[in-house]
Design goal:
Layout: H1 5-19, H2 23-30, H3 34-41, H4 49-59, H5 63-68, H6 85-106
Length: 110
């Protein structure tokens, strides 16, 4: 899980378009320049953390979603029901490790 500037910018643009707001109006609403927002949306620059927090608050989404595309972990299905946040994070880290090691299956090494 990491900050993918391109995917994050695409999510921000999609959220803005779904809300029916212009780039200029959104930029003004969160206190940045329209050019800065354009660069984030067009995936030229990543957003500063304070800008990303403002965008997450504006669109009422988590920072996890905005930055990494992860929806609310507690809503990812009943498999996580009743688990604490640190237990859920542990499971996600295990899943990431498994995914990274899938190359061995793909290459016939197992």
């Amino acid at each position: 899980m990491y900050y993918n500037v391109k995917e994050s910018g695409a999510r921000i643009r999609l959220l803005r378009e779904k809300a029916g707001i212009s780039r200029h109006a959104l930029a003004e609403g969160i206190g940045i320049s329209a050019d800065a927002l354009r660069k984030i949306e067009r995936r030229t620059n990543g957003g500063r953390i304070d800008t990303l927090v403002l965008l997450a608050e504006y669109f009422q989404v988590s920072l996890d979603y905005l930055v990494c595309g992860i929806r609310d972990r507690k809503e990812n299905g009943s498999i996580f029901a009743g688990l604490k946040e640190n237990e859920i994070m542990f499971l996600f880290k295990m899943a990431e490790s498994i995914k990274e090691n899938m190359v061995y299956l793909k290459n016939g090494l197992f």
